[in-house]
Amino acid sequence: MTDTKDAAATDSGAAPDGGTIAIRLEDLAKRFPGEKELAVKDLTMEIPQGEIVILVGPSGCGKTTTMKMINRIIEPSSGRIFLDGEDVTKVNPDQLRRRIGYVIQQIGLFPHVTIADNIATVPKMLGWKKERITERVDELLEMVGMDPGKYRDRYPKELSGGQRQRVGVARAMSADPDVMLMDEPFGAIDPITRDRLQNEFLRLQEQIKKTIVFVTHDIDEAIKMGDRIAILREQSQIAQFDTPERILVNPADDFVADFIGRGASLKRLSLSRVRDVELHQWPTADEGSSHDEVRRTLEGSDKSAVLLLDDQRRPVRWVNAEHLSRSGGGGELSGVGLPPEAMVQPNATLSDTLNEMITARYSTAIVVDSDNAYQGIVDIDTINETVRSMRRAELGRLRDADGGSGEAEDPEDEDR
Amino acid sequence: MTDVSWYESFWTYLGFTWQDLLGLGIEHAIVVIISVTISTLIGVSLGVLTYRTDRPRAAVLGVTGTFLTIPSLALFTLLIQVPLLGLGAPSVIFALVLYGLLPVVRNTIVGLREVDSAIVESAQGMGMGRNERLWRIELPLAWPVVLTGVRVSTLLLIGIAAIGAYINGPGLGDEIFEGLAQIGSATALNRVLSGTLGVIVLAILFDLVYVVISRLTVSKGLK
Question: Which ipTM did the prediction report?
Fold first, then answer.
């Protein structure tokens, strides 16, 4: 009990480096009628402006209840909610909700009105002028990657699941709220589309910088989407509230470690991207090179194959000693060797790269830039080094932070 | 045999009386339209007021269901004793309104309860108040179901309205009761037949009207 409070206090102390506090929950509690146990017990939490904060935990831990108390879809039994420093615990809930974007798993688009009218819901209630609404609707549709001319007048049933989800996000952003609440927004979508939508949303968030409270039960989604993750146990008690990196490297207790599950190291791989690691080089040769040149390159390296590149440095084929001898000593190399696979771009995560690499020849992923020109390779050693150095770095940072914040804690508490 | 002669005689009868029959048909339709309109207003209101709460909902469904079990002849006979109603159209309309309630109330409640709770929650989450939610989201979504209830109610009332002629009510029932009174005479069969066919034609016409109403009032997004 005291532990969690301390943890929360330390973290709120850590928050200001990211800027101001957008949402502050103070001793928030909820008891549902007819239930003995509190669903949420004395939760105190601060959510920094412009960040995605993930509430994650096992089902029934109160994470959704907690989120729904922020826009008071569920009224708290006690405690207070501050939005940008303003106490909104008692203000008119409808007025409050128009300031907060809300996306739920089922999206809940209105099936009887068009996409444009769905998105225009809040602006209409706020009494915007017609032209301003039309303009905003088109802008939002474009923002979520849908052609306004094509989709404006359609009905929700004419859209795919992924498109509906996009419209749901657009609708939540319609009146440009500072805060958005998202309850498993990607939960009901197939894994491939989900991945794409998550990436799109992260890209969007880089521009819009909203404060987002995001609920999920999926730790992998939490690690991918979160700037900060609050791992909750029963009654919405904070087990750990920290950045994904620090949670993975240093789980606060067994509960957190269990929840992250095995493979924390593997999960960490989805936090770094190919562009963050030092690429290794592989022996390469020009496509037009002669047999002998390629053979010399091969013999001069410790690798068992040479990567042939075309005149724009795009990987064309792998050639190994066997290929060379089988094709005889002639001058031309055309058609010799095997096509390259496992090509990744610098923005791929190491986790995806590893996945590609495992099935690829020579256990190597070829890194190419956006024009598909060869940059280098990532192999299992690269990944191994990265994981170890990340762990070292985080542990180091953690030790520093513990020393520092320990002293800073007391005066802060007195401040309050 | 007489087969040939009865339908020949029926055609001749129609030829002579179609104008009267048309008049009766219009009266019949007017009584039904008035009754269904009142039933719908009351029924939808009752549905809206009770769909969220268990006991009132059960009570409303129970009471309106009971109305339907009262034999219409008995109800008409009782109603003519009531001051201000008496013989004729007012009693008929009063009875029809009672009979028409159940399908409307039932379908309103079912329709509103079937609205996806996620849709209602997202409306609430965007700051739509309770009334606004009802008018802008829940009722439009429940409307196809409500409309089906009104349609069923209409068909039911077209049939019952015919019996209203028993207490001097307007409409095609008149023709049927006249025929019954003259049973054995040459025109008895013609009268009963024309009254009955008139009711059937009216029912078909009303159904067509509902197809049009549904086209016009149900959102394209729901079809």
Answer: 0.85
